[in-house]
Design brief:
5-stranded antiparallel sheet, 8-stranded antiparallel sheet, 6 helices, globular, 15 strands, Jelly Rolls, alpha+beta
Length: about 300
């Protein structure tokens, strides 16, 4: 387990080659970083393609672990599950809760920071550099979440923003890093965005979905971009960027891993004593401490 996502010089060089990012510094202290040109592009568009951050072997391990969690072969007490709707209509999505039995039709699973494989991935050096630029040294997460559009299914997610008072935080989160666990295409419901829409700020204090009038004005089809992505590709998203996704019309799933990073000083409005899981900086979660509560016998 400890060797998974270890960042040796050879591993860092492979990731840098895959993403195209330069690695400044001497051979012993190389780190993956974004250029100022890439930051300018992100600030202009509200998203930035990061390329494939993990190796093919690491991606296969994440895929298998996700199947094992959905099928109950790897169990974590308190992990949050939500099955997909049967109709594809967002308002018909069932309430989430505990694991409801083996199924590959879970729409959403949260608290994946408890799993050592996913925790190791979300603590990748590239993500460390990005979050340091945005938040500073101490960084938490609001959620580490699996998103799934099962084969031939999926729920239409309307245009929305990932911020606002509905999140119950004393400040809005700024960034999410979304990673394709399968090839993500128009046919299987890839994410669709409106570049630059983050510059409008929140469309309502509550956040989340927008009105039909706002969609007609700010989210025209001719302005949208489909973020098709190969398995393993990571994309940096501004939380105010308008985005949506459709249903999966093919016989292969569209799985993704989404992590919303926070300033570690962020607090819950209703429960100011609540602390969100720290992933970078003082008191950060450690991969060696993340263990399943139960692993089914082979």
């Amino acid at each position: 387990m400890m060797g998974f996502f270890s960042h040796s010089r050879s591993g860092a060089a492979r990731s840098a080659f895959q993403t195209g990012f330069p690695m400044p510094g001497n051979k012993e202290t190389r780190q993956i970083m974004l250029t100022e040109q890439q930051w300018d592009q992100y600030e202009r568009d509200g998203y930035l393609r990061l390329g494939q951050v993990a190796t093919d072997e690491e991606m296969e391990a994440l895929q298998q672990r996700m199947d094992d969690i959905m099928l109950g072969r790897v169990r974590y007490q308190g992990m949050w599950f939500q099955l997909d709707s049967e109709t594809g209509v967002y308002s018909d999505v069932p309430a989430g809760g505990q694991w409801a039995g083996p199924s590959l039709s879970y729409r959403k699973i949260e608290l994946l920071e408890r799993d050592p494989l996913f925790l190791a991935y979300m603590q990748h050096p590239l993500f460390r550099e990005i979050t340091r630029r945005v938040y500073g040294e101490n960084v938490s997460i609001y959620r580490a979440m699996f998103m799934n559009k099962p084969a031939g299914k999926g729920t239409i997610l309307p245009y929305h923003q990932d911020a606002g008072s509905q999140w119950g935080l004393d400040r809005n989160p700024k960034i999410t890093i979304w990673t394709a666990l399968d090839d993500s295409t128009i046919a299987n419901g890839c994410v669709q965005v409106i570049p630059g829409s983050h510059k409008h700020g929140l469309f309502s204090d509550y956040g989340h979905t927008i009105t039909r009038e706002q969609e007609e004005q700010y989210a025209r089809d001719e302005d949208s971009v489909y973020l098709e992505a190969k398995r393993g590709e990571a994309i940096l998203l501004d939380n105010l960027l308008l985005h949506r996704s459709g249903v999966n019309t093919i016989d292969c799933p569209r799985r993704a891993f989404s992590v919303c990073y926070l300033d570690a000083a962020t607090r819950s409005v209703k429960n100011p004593e609540r602390r969100f899981p720290v992933v970078f900086g003082e008191g950060a979660l450690r991969v060696e401490d993340a263990k399943p509560d139960e692993i089914a016998a082979a």
